[in-house]
Known about the structure:
Elements: E1 2-9, E2 15-22, E3 29-30, H1 35-39, E4 59-62, E5 67-70, E6 73-74, H2 75-81, H3 84-93, H4 99-110, H5 117-125, H6 132-146, H7 156-182, H8 195-204, H9 215-228, H10 235-244, H11 250-261, H12 269-280, H13 286-294, H14 315-330, H15 337-351, H16 354-358, H17 365-375, H18 383-403
Antiparallel strand pairs: 1-2, 2-3, 4-5, 5-6
Helix pairs in contact: 3-18, 6-7, 6-11, 7-8, 7-18, 9-14, 9-17, 9-18, 10-11, 10-18, 11-18, 12-17, 14-17
Amino acid sequence: MTEEAYRLITPDGHxxxxxxxxxxxxxxxxxxxxxxxxxxxxxxxxxFIATGSCASDITFIDGEKGILMYRGYPVEQxxxxxxxxxxxxxxxxxxxxxxxELEEFDTTIRTHTMLNEGMLNFFKGFRYNAHPMxxxxxxxxxxxxxxxxxxxxxxxxxxxxxxxxxxxxxxxxAAAAYKLSIGQPFMYPKxxxxxxxxxxxxxxxxxxxxxETDPIQAEALDLLFILHADxxxxxxxxxxxxxxxxxxxxxxxxxxxxxxxxxxxxGGANEAVLRMLxxxxxxxxxxKYLAKAKDKDDxxxxxxxxxxxYKNFDPRATIIREMAHKVLNSLPNNNETPLFELxxxxxxxxxxxxxxxxxxxxxxxxxxxxIIYKALGIPTSMFTVMFALGRSVGWVSHWRExxxxxxxxxxxxxxxxxxxxxxxxxxxxxx
Length: 431
Ligand code: CMC
């Protein structure tokens, strides 16, 4: 980071110099860290619209141009040429692996897939209809109980082991949650299979039958994992950083990220899109729902539309839209084609509508991902879990960056207090 100064004229007419940090690309940031000591004022920016919380060299997004890069590599290139495990290595280590580095990393992930057998008992405590995101968050949080004394956040080797365990064990936990919800036996991981094939095997195989992975299913899922792998300082990643900034056990920081992801404005949107399409039901109802989305007095929003950062298009949505076509064409007798046609019509009409044009509202990654998941036989309640599997490597990469940053401090925002001014306590009998 190089520095320039940003000059502010304060209300009393003084000139104040604030350092400016320049990144590799993207907007400069004005460092306001000294503003309070100097001027006695805080800054106010609900939702962090214009506030950078850290310096990061992991992921870059240009929302105007629809650019997303992991460690400098455009996501389109990674989607076309790479696979999820290689992307995990890239995000965690900063560089693409050599053949031997990739083999070693792949073997490490494959050999950390099993859960401590005691952890499986947690699943027996959940009600049969527990939401899989609740189970995922709870069981990942419980990993902090298994790996508490052995995880020293200041030890780089421990940080690596933590990273490998999260990437390797999340699919096992996710599949166990699914199996519980449908009353089938838990399927152990098979380390001869790659990451995505293994996950599919744990989800869809049963002890009584032979199971073979469908290559289109594996390709589509691997692509979705790549596209969800990281998205710089989004809500769940910032939650992981914030929880971890106190030095908390990193497994519990990841559990906090999973909880943040679950919300319908974030990762929960993929589930909400499918529920919305079910509710709309038919092309003839689209106008009614567009009117609802535009009505300020109606809380309904077009799920899968809009993004805090992307204001022209979401590059992930463009890639996924193509994959949705491929998956639906490869499954000629699938039941999801009418749903996809409804989604395409909704997209077409919304993109022509002045309200959506003026507010720069475009389909985001989650507009199409649910349709693919559904066509692959993944139930709606598991959609956000799929997002979590992909994003887990992003969370871990950011946590590692945060914990080893020499400028790292406990995250502790300030506030504008608008409550009652000081007043005296009134005894109960006088109220
Ligand atoms: N449908 C209708 N109106 C919308 C929508 C929508 N999907 N999204 C935003 N708006 C309107 C909003 O009412 C506001 O209007 P006004 O200026 O008149 O008050 C304006 O557009 C700006 O919206 P905002 O909520 O201030 O924007 P934001 O940057 O805080 O929110 C968002 C971004 C993604 C939360 C929001 O667009 C949204 O709720 N979308 C639907 C949920 C969704 O699809 N989320 C998935 C995001 S992509 C996956 C991920 O990365 O998590």
